[in-house]
Amino acid sequence: MYFPKQNIPDEQKDKKWCSEMIDAVIKYHGNSVRTSRERRKDYDNYMLFNGLFDQRQFEYITNTYGLATPARLVNYPIIQPKVDLMVGEFVNQPLKFSVYTINKDAVSRKLTEKSEIMAEFLLAPVIKEIEESMGGQETGAGNVPLDAIPEDIEMFFSRSYRENVESMVYHGLNYLNYKYHNKDIFKRGLYDLCITGKTFYKTEIVNGDPRIRRIDPRALLYDNNNDSEYLDDAQWVAEERYMTINEIIDEFRNELTREDISKLEDIRQSSQSQIAERYTNPTSWYFQEQGDYGSSTRIKVIHCEWKSIRTMRVKLSPNKFDPDTPFVKILPDNYRPRKSDTIDYRAITDIWEATRIGPDINIRCRRRPNQIRFERDLANTKLSYVGAIRNNIDGSTISVVDSLKNIQLLYNVVMFHIDLAMARAGGKSVVYDTSQAPQGMDFATVMYHVKNSGLIPINSKQEGNQPQTFNQFQQVDFTLSNSVQQLINLKMMLEDTANKITGINNERQGVMKGYEAVGSAERSVFQSSLVTQPLFHIHSKVIEKCMNNLANLMKICWNKKDSMSYILGDNNMQIFDVDESLSYDEYGVFVTSSSTESAKKKVIEGLAANALSSGQVDFLQMIKVVNAESASDAETVLEMAIQEMKKQQQAMQQQQAQAQQAAAEAQQQKTQADMQMAQAANDTKIRVAQINADGAVEKTKVHSESQEDITSSKNKAKINEEFLKNSLGR
Q1: Does residue 674 fall inside a structural domain?
Q2: Longest dimension (CA), the chain
Q3: Centroid of chain to Cα 690
Q4: How far apart (Å, rounded) are the C-alpha atoms in residues 523 and 602?
Q5: 304 pLDDT higher than 90
Q6: Percent of the chain at pLDDT exceeding 90
Q7: Which long-range contacts (CB under 8 A, 24 or more apart) does 216-220 make?
Q8: Residue 365: enclosing H or E segment and its boundaries?
Q9: Is the CB of residue 123 less than 8 Å from the CB of residue 141?
Q10: pLDDT given at position 339
C-alpha cells in the first residue's frame, strides 16, 4: 500500500496531501482480499444471527425432483440465546470503575497527605496528653481531626482515599454514563464482539461534552497489527458511512462551503441515471434507498485518521542531578537559537484527520484537535478510535457466531427433516379393492361400516368374482417412524456440541437436572465462566480505554467552574462541582470485569447467608448485601454489618453484665435490708422482753410496796385499836 510521505514540514501537509492519504486508504480497501473477506463474513454473521440465510444453498434438500416438500426450512436459533445470555450478564452488572490521578505532582500530593495523616496518627496520644496537662486547652497542633483519622491508614489510601479532582472526574464519568446511556452503547459493542469478533468506538468532544459513539465493525477499515488486539495501536483507521444529505449538513455544516452545499442539493434532486452520468463510479459513492414514499439518496462519507510524524526542535540543558538525562525544552517555530544553545530534533507521533464526502468533497483536512498525551510519554499519542479485534491472527477473527455457524445451519436442516417427518405422519391405512364392494353398497356405505361397525362386508361368491384364498386388504403405516427419534438424538447432540464449543452449559443457562447436586452445578457454572472470561476481559479493556479517553477529554472541555447533577434512581440525586483544577492533572480509569465482579458478588452473598444463619447479620443487612451494585459494595456492606453486629453484641453483653451487676447489687441490698429488718425485729423483741421484764419488776415492786403498806396500815390500825382500848380501860 502506498502512503504519502509523513515526515514533512507542516506547511506541506495541506489539503492535497490529506486527499492523497484518503486515496491510498480507498485503494487499499479495493485491493485487499483480506478486508473484503472479513467484511463479507461479518455481513453473513449478522444475517445468520438475525435468523436470515440464503435458502438457495439448501435447495438440494428442500426440493425433491423439482417439487417442493411439505415442510419449511426456517431458522431455529441456538446462537442468539447464548449471545443474549452473555450480554444479559454484562447488563445485570454495574459499570464499576475507579479514577486515579497518575501524574507526578498528583502522586507527590498523595504521599504528602499520607505522611501528614500518619504523623497525626502517631502524635495523637502525645497531643492528647499535653492538652490534658494544660487543663483541656487545645494546642492547635493537629491539622486533621482525630476522629477523621482511619484505623488502617494503608488500607484507607489504597481503597477509600480520593482527592477532590479524582472525585470530580469520578462523578463526571457517572454523569456522562447516565446522560448519554453509555452502558447501552457498550452493550451494543458486546453484541458486535460476539457476532463479528470485533468491537469499535470513537471518543470525541461533541457540544462541549466528551462522547462515545459505537462504530459498526462492517464500516471500519484499519491497519492490521498482528502484535496487538487493540485498535488504538493501529497506524491508520478509516470509517465508512452512507449518510443522507440532511445528516451530512447537520454534522458538517461548519466545514461545508456554499459550493459544497449546492452540490449536495443537486444530488438530492438527481435520479440514479443522472448521478451515473454526472459523477464517476456512482455505484461506489452513491445509492438510492427506495421507500414507501419515494427514494432517498445516500452518499458515502469516509473519515480517516492516521499517525503522522512531526519533527520538533528542542533545547537541551544540563541536569546537575542526573548528567545522563538533560532537561528538554520544546522550542517554538520562530525561535532563533544562540551560539551556546544545544539544539536537537525529536520525532513525535502526530494524529491527522480528513473527511471525504462523495468522490470530490474534502473537509476537515487538519491535525486532529484534542490529542491526549501523558507526562510519562509525551511523544506518543493514540487514535480517537478505540476497539479490539479478538484472536487477531493474520487479520482473521473468530467470533462466537463463527464457531457456531455450521452447527446452526446443520441444526436447521435436522429440524427441517423433523418437520418433514411430522408432515408425512398419520394413522394406519387399509388398501381396499373397490371391486370387492358388495352389491347395493357404495363406497361411502362401506366406509360407514368400517368406522361404526368395525367390519368390511364383502361377498366373494357374487357373480364375476373368484373366491380369494388370501387376504388382499394390506395395511400401510403412516405413523412416526424410528428415524424421528434418531433425528431428535442428533438435534440434542448438536445442542450439546454448541454448549461445549461456547462453554455456555445448561447449568449456566438455568437448566438444572433434578439429581444434580448444588456444589456440582456451581462448579459447572464456574467452569463455564472461565471459558467466556477472555471475551469479557477484552470487552472490559476496551471500556477502560474509552473511559480513560473520556476522563482526559473532560479536562479539556470542562475547564470552567460549573455544577452538574445526575439521577441515581429512587428519588436520589448526585450533585457535584467542577472547576479549573480538573485540567491540571492526568487521569487513569480502571474498570472491573463484569463476570469477575458477578462471581465475587455471588461468593459474598453466600458468605452473608452463612453469617445470617449464624446470627452475625440480620435480615435487613442481608437485603442490603443482595441489593449492592458490586462485589466491593457488598463486601463493604457485609463488613460494616458484621462490625455493627459485633458492636451490638458487645453492647448487649455490657448491658447484660450491667444488669447482672445491678441484680447482684439489688440482691445484696435486699439481703442487707432483710438482715436489718430481722435485726430490727430481734431488737424489738428484746426491747419488748426488756420492757415486759421491767414491767414485771416494777409490778413486783409495786406489789411489795403495796403489801408493805397494807401490813403497815394493819399494824398501825392494830396499834391504834390497842391504844384506844387502853385509853378506854382506864
Answers
A1: no
A2: 205
A3: 95
A4: 13
A5: yes
A6: 16
A7: 216/192, 217/42, 217/192, 218/39, 218/42, 218/43, 218/46, 220/385, 220/387
A8: strand 361-367
A9: yes
A10: 80
Gap between the Cα atoms of 450 and 430, Å rounded: 10
- The Cα 247–Cα 260 span in angstroms is 14
Task: Give the three cell numbers for residue 318.
Answer: 544540563
593 DSSP assignment: P
267 with 203, same domain? Answer: no
C-beta separation of 211 from 558 below 8 A: no
Task: Indicate whether 273 and 144 sit together in one domain.
Answer: no
Cell numbers describing residue 218: 462492517
Query: How far is the C-alpha of 258 from the C-alpha of 264, rounded, in Å?
Result: 10
DSSP letter assigned to residue 438: P
Question: What percent helix, strand, coil does the chain show, rounded to 5?
Answer: 55, 20, 30
Q: How many CB atoms lie within 10 A of CB 368?
A: 18
Q: SS3 for 222?
A: strand
701 part of a folded domain = no
Query: Do 239 and 151 have their domain in common?
Result: no
481: amino acid identity, one letter: S
> Do 212 and 245 lie in a common domain?
no
Structural domain total, the chain: 2
* DSSP for residue 469: S
Gap between the terminal Cα atoms of the chain: 191
Query: Please, how many CA atoms are within 13 Å of residue 712, restricted to the half-sphere of its CB?
Result: 6
Cα 201-189-567 angle, rounded to 5 deg: 85
Do 179 and 312 lie in one domain? The reply is no
Pair type for strands 428-430 and 475-477: antiparallel
Q: What is the pLDDT of residues 417-460, one digit of tens each?
A: 888 888 777 666 667 667 767 777 777 787 777 767 667 676 66
Cell, residue 405: 455457524
Residue 676, in any domain of the structure: no
More confident: 475 or 110: 110
CB atoms within 10 A of CB 536: 22
Alpha helices in 614-630, H assignment, sequence order: 619-627
Exposure string over 186-225, b if 16+ CB within 10 A, otherwise e = beebbbbbbbbbbbbbbbbbeeebbbbebbbbbebbbbbe
Identify the domain containing residue 518 by its residue range. 32-233+398-425+480-592
171 and 265 both lie in a single domain: no
Residues 415 and 532 in one domain: yes
The position carrying cell 447537520 is 250
CA distance 198 to 192: 6
- Grid cell in block for residue 411: 441444526
pLDDT digits (tens, 9 = 90+) for 592-624: 766 666 667 777 777 788 888 877 778 787 887
From 330, 358, 382, give the residue that closes a domain: 382
Which position has the grid cell 485518521?
A: 305
Query: What's the CA gap between 417 and 411, in Å, rounded?
Result: 10
> For 214, phi and psi rounded to 5 degrees?
-75, 135
> Could you give the CA distance from residue 53 to residue 408 in angstroms, rounded to a whole number?
11
Using only C-alpha atoms, the chain has a radius of gyration, in whole angstroms, of 49
- Grid cell of 19 as nine digits: 486527499
- Which one of 570, 592, 614 terminates a domain? 592
The amino acid at 64? T
Sort strands 342-357 and 294-317 into parallel, antiparallel or unpaired. Answer: antiparallel
- The CA distance from 150 to 161, in Å, is 10
CA distances from 12 to 5, 6, 94, 298, 513 (A): 10, 10, 49, 33, 71
Whose grid coordinates read 438482715?
Answer: 675
Q: pTM of the entire structure?
A: 0.75
389 domain-assigned: no
Beta strands in 119-219 (DSSP E): 198-206, 209-215
CB burial class (10 A; 0-12, 13-18, 19+) of residue 299?
Answer: buried
Cα atoms in the Cβ-side hemisphere of radius 13 Å centred on 707: 5
Do 410 and 514 belong together in one domain? Answer: yes
pLDDT tens for residues 406-418?
999 999 999 988 8
CA-wise closest residue to 89 among 497, 609, 533: 533
**One-letter amino acid for residue 667 of the chain:** Q
